[in-house]
Amino acid sequence: DTGVSQNPRHKITKRGQNVTFRCDPISEHNRLYWYRQTLGQGPEFLTYFQNEAQLEKSRLLSDRFSAERPKGSFSTLEIQRTEQGDSAMYLCASSFLGAGYTFGSGTRLTVV
Amino acid sequence: AQTVTQSQPEMSVQEAETVTLSCTYDTSESNYYLFWYKQPPSRQMILVIRQEAYKQQNATENRFSVNFQKAAKSFSLKISDSQLGDTAMYFCAFMKHEVQGAQKLVFGQGTRLTINP
Question: How far is CA B84 from the centre of its chain?
Fold first, then answer.
């Protein structure tokens, strides 16, 4: 098991474009989380899946953001019509029955 | 809502010294967990130490220990015999205990720790 994998590691996009990030959690982990970390700040919760069900979303997750976890395996986070304020590190984490998080290395998004 | 405050944006010590990072939190919950996470430059966040609020005994992991003061809502991290590899951002985090809920983490702003040779 190689831990939580996130792709791509870096993404530069023009304002207004759509981007999609992928997270592959630890295979036996049923919980998957997305967090956003802006420069110099701690991560902030975005959304949470238990298996394939998205059970909680933060107010930070505007209508331009959508996340999926088909079949309870990998997850994708899509941002539509990106804005400069979306520039951040997007972190994925997984856990099993809340036993403790394992974080991925993150996807750094830069919107120009 | 819970909040976590780390009042030291940056700290710097010499190798082998002891350093203490501060964290305070605010919550009305009685059952929760507190964590310290380490985020090395360009690397993933890893768990340093965890404390259950119902436990009076302070958690210890090798060179890392905490001073948990529940009444004061304070949770500091002490790193003994600091090493160059301890250089990283350190985040204090709170998690409400909820068996069926999201178990999401609330993080502080972080403390950038530099260990100098």
Answer: 19
End-to-end CA distance of chain A: give it in Å, rounded. 36
Best B5, B103, B109 member to test A by mutation, with max A CBs in 10 Å, is: B103
Residues of chain B found within 8 Å of residue A105, distances taken between Cβ atoms: 42-44
Residue A1 is predicted with a pLDDT of: 54
Q: What is the pLDDT of residues B18-51, one digit of tens each?
A: 999 999 999 999 899 999 999 998 789 999 999 9
Of residues B42, B104, B110, nearest to A45 (C-beta): B104
CA atoms within 13 A on the CB side of B59: 19
A75 strand-pairing partners? A23
With the C-alpha atoms ordered B24, A40, A57, B46, is the resulting torsion angle positive or negative?
A: negative
Flag if A95 and B103 touch (Cβ within 8 Å): yes
Cα–Cα distance for residue pair B50/B48, rounded to 1 Å:
7
